[in-house]
From TrEMBL:
Transmembrane segments: none annotated. One of its GO terms (biological process) is lipid metabolic process. Coiled coil: none annotated. Residues 4-240 form the GP-PDE domain. GO terms for molecular function: phosphoric diester hydrolase activity. PROSITE patterns: GP_PDE. It holds the Pfam family GDPD. InterPro entries: GP_PDE_dom (IPR030395), PLC-like_Pdiesterase_TIM-brl (IPR017946). This is GP-PDE domain-containing protein.
Length: 258
């Protein structure tokens, strides 16, 4: 397996401020060993951990994310979800995110999330530059953007890659071979059992986003899904996926897993 059966979605998105160091801590509090996060660029090309093109959904500010400098974004806080006991937290840089993950001993699914399609290759390149200082971290790189994954394949082919789709297209097999991906990540609401079987028949793992109901998680486990992304790790601890958790020991997908 590339990752654990349970992967914290943007940390633990319904428990703590998403894509923040608090969110990472909240996920770990519920025994999560892998965490998904989104990488995009500031206006001065600093890779940060943030999901939206605009600020207003999760902060008390307005504006386009990629029009803010890193200095400006450091003054903005991500708000916690309703009912959370976690306080607001700052937007982390990719360096801060990786440093904390290394300290806490978690693996990362880094989704390249360019704020504009034209920034896909640049986002990938600058992310990979930062990753050079963290060779010991277990990382899987994913994206909806084929150009971003192609850039990773050309520059740093040893990192495992996963292709994201909202719905599995007819050309998925050709695309997967061209990009050399090891997994396909698909939308929970549009996934069908036969698609999981098709992916596995081609030697690909299948991860599903975003699963927050234990009954659905159990069904997906029996379908043969490799793992799920969840906003609610507290609800998933008794599911079968919680028993298929590990930290990969190397970047090479052909290496054995301890």
């Amino acid at each position: 397996m590339l990752m654990s059966g349970l992967i914290g979605h943007r940390g633990a998105r319904q428990l703590a401020p998403e894509n923040t160091l608090s969110g990472m801590s909240a996920a770990i509090d519920h025994q999560i060993e892998w965490i998904e996060a989104d990488v995009m660029l500031t206006s001065d090309h600093v890779p940060i951990i943030f999901h939206d093109d605009h600020l207003q959904r999760v902060t008390r500010h307005k504006g386009t994310t990629d029009q803010q400098t890193w200095a400006q974004l450091q003054a903005i806080q991500v708000q916690p979800p309703y009912g959370s006991h976690w306080p607001a937290d700052t937007i982390p840089s990719l360096v801060q995110w990786l440093s904390t993950a290394r300290t806490l001993g978690v693996g990362l699914n880094l989704e390249i999330k360019p704020s504009q399609p034209k920034l896909a290759k640049l986002t990938a390149r600058l992310m990979l530059e930062v990753l050079k200082d963290f060779p010991d971290l277990p990382i899987v790189i994913s994206s909806f953007n084929g150009a971003a994954l192609d850039t990773c394949l050309n520059i740093a082919p040893t990192y495992p890659r996963a292709r994201l789709w909202d719905q599995l297209p007819t050309h998925w097999a050709d695309d997967a071979r061209r990009l050399g991906v090891s997994a396909i990540n698909l939308n929970n609401f549009k996934l069908r059992r036969h698609q999981v079987e098709q992916l596995k028949s081609q030697g690909l793992e299948c991860y599903v986003y975003t699963v927050n109901r234990p009954a659905r998680a159990q069904k997906l486990y029996h379908w043969g899904v490799s793992g799920i992304f969840t906003d609610r790790p507290d609800l998933m601890r008794e599911t079968a996926f919680s028993r298929s958790s590990h930290i990969r020991q190397a970047l090479d997908v052909n290496d054995s897993i301890e």
